[in-house]
Amino acid sequence: QGKQKKARKYAVMKRMISLRDERINEKNRAKARVKKKEDPSAIKEREVPQHPSCLFFQYNTQLGPPYHILVDTNFINFSIKAKLDLVQSMMDCLYAKCIPCITDCVMGEIEKLGQKYRVALRIAKDPRFERLPCMHKGTYADDCLVQRVTQHKCYIVATVDKELKRRIRKIPGVPIMYISRHRYNIERMPDDYGAPRF
Q1: How far apart are CA 105 and CA 85, in angstroms?
Q2: 40 φ, ψ (degrees, to nearest 5)
Q3: Cα angle, residue 173 at apex, residues 86 and 138 outer, rounded to 5°
Q4: Is 72-187 assigned to CATH 3.40.50.1010?
């Protein structure tokens, strides 16, 4: 009878001894961790996130005419499809002066989309649009908008993207502008801002 061949087991690693093993020299051996007993009388410190002073629960005091509206790539695209004038429709929705703002990331995203989105690019380069510079690396527009809105509560976000809307809804005091039935609507905006409640 022949010798049975043993197949090597796939992805077998050599067993390593732990640093606390007794076979390792005393000076090289890792010390066993000693748990510190918690003092029940000690004052417990915990970090509470700092909330902006402009918020009174969900009411944002920084929002007021002229409204600064952060525009997303797909919002411009859907406005073109719905044949809506961006600035005029914003004013019709909010009954006040609106300043559409576009970040470098959104601009970069539109430029990357190429020839198909040339009309959107022309609209984005409109002098009525306020250009906001980005200091961070990369051109992922959604992260940029969420970060900007978290830091400064003076913006309304105009988007049609479901994922971005879901992320912005978690941030208190930030209204969302969207398109439905061939007109602009606003979500989560108290009556005191002078804007209609839908």
Answers
A1: 22
A2: -65, -25
A3: 65
A4: yes
Enter the tokens of residue 111: 């430029």
Give me the residues of the chain with pLDDT under 70, please.
Answer: 1-2, 8-13, 32, 58, 189-198
Global pTM reads: 0.70
The model's pLDDT over 102-131, given as tens digits with 9 standing for 90+, comes to 999 999 999 999 899 999 999 999 999 999
Give residue for tokens 């051996």. Answer: 29
Give yes or no for a contact between 178 and 69, defined as CB atoms under 8 angstroms apart.
Answer: no
Q: Which tokens belong to 191?
A: 């009556």
Calpha distance 141→104 (Å, rounded): 9
- For the chain, what are the domain ranges? 72-187
Residue 175: count of CB within 10 angstroms of its CB: 21
Which amino acid makes up residue 10?
Y
CA distances from residue 153 to 30, 54, 101, 146 in whole angstroms, order as listed: 50, 8, 14, 11
